[in-house]
Amino acid sequence: MLKEFKEFAIRGNVMDLAIGVIIGGAFGKIISSLVADIFMPLISLLLGKVDFANMFISLTGVKYATLEEAKTAGAATLNYGLFLIALLDFVIIAIVLFLLVRSINKLSKKPEPVAEPTTKECPYCLSTIALKAVRCPNCTSELK
Length: 144
Fold this sequence. Notes:
Oligomer: single chain
Number of strands: 4
Number of helices: 4
Mean pLDDT: 83
Order of helices and strands: HHEHEHEE
Radius of gyration: 33 Å
Shape: elongated
Helix content: 40-55%
CATH topology of the largest domain: Non-ribosomal Peptide Synthetase Peptidyl Carrier Protein, Chain A
Number of domains: 2
């Protein structure tokens, strides 16, 4: 069983998948940082300095100034601001992956195969005849 697992793990597809998952995780962290550290402050500034990380509803009915304060108090909260940040993360990742796959597909387009001819020219009268013809229907010459 160990030998079979080793053969499975060394196969190219498994290694490619593992590398893809690792790079995807790192890519996700980069995008999350981009959203949290670059986009959200800009969006917050445009919307009047709104702090999305502290947009929540306390389900206990008690008012808290920050989400951290509510968590420290053990209050149940509905964190719609964090959801908006996660949603923006997802949208940006989806757009970037779409553009990446689209550009890879453009680069790796294979030329369409050339259709094999079904006709040929008669060497005597130069008319178009079927490829398998042994005699020209126009000039009745025997073809080689």
